[in-house]
Amino acid sequence: MWTHARWQGRFLPHPLAPGERLRAYATWCNAVEGNTTFYATPTRDTVESWARQTAPDFRFVVKLPKPITHERRLLGVDDEVRSFLDTIEPLGPRIHALWIQLPGSFGPTDVGALAGFLRRLPRSYGFAVEVRHRAFFDDPRSVRLLEKVLTEAEAEWVPFDTVAFFQSPPTSDAERDAWTKKPRVPRRSSALTDRPIVRYLGRDDTARTVEGWRQWVDTVAEWLREGRSPTVFIHTPDNAEALTLARRFHDDVRAALPGLEPLPEPMPTAATEPLTLF
Predict the structure, then answer these.
(1) Per-residue model confidence as pLDDT tens digits over 202-232
(2) Which terminus of the chain has fewer CB atoms gathered within 10 Å of its CB, N or C?
(3) Global pTM value
(4) Residue 37 carries which DSSP code?
């Protein structure tokens, strides 16, 4: 995500060597969704580069690969999990949580597979589970069942809040594309652990995005007062302004909690290396 084309030259220096792009992103935000690992496991050398570019307290929420979560549905994947964890090991304390995003077809009858899978994961990691089956939002029994399994494993339930996004029809190509792909589920704002994680999807219109996150500002501020350490990811359909929006959300929370530390100062957008012809 830190190489998003719409940010190059606007928020992040351009051109910039691949081994410096995450470092530049980390001056804007102190956490990142490791979404690329869902589609392909990086090389260990690549992961070592990520570690060199970030401070030990930078947060990676690393998504487990698609073959583990969607194709094998958490069954018979011990070897694949061990291989993946070995690859990301260089991140060390930067691994804030292993992100287990499950397909929309993964429902209450599959919770046993999730429970067994979580029991086999090393306790040195934090776990964050994202579900999309409607029963986990509409059926109280299914909600209680999932919460029980997650609580026993000390795992967090990751809400993907799309309520503001679906409040009115799309108005751009990016919104129309997201309209057909993103889950339409009720908002959930309860934390199960001391490290809650929130994913929020707004609109390409900044004012509507900000209006839609008002409840999260209050919730995150309350979590901080309780001694929790939340992580919040701000998205829009085109993500063109995601970096500035993330910092604006952080500023809104700081307005409620002035003692909250500010984010780092962004790196200047001037290129760090001279252009050459040869």
Answers:
(1) 999 999 999 999 999 999 999 999 999 999 9
(2) C
(3) 0.94
(4) G
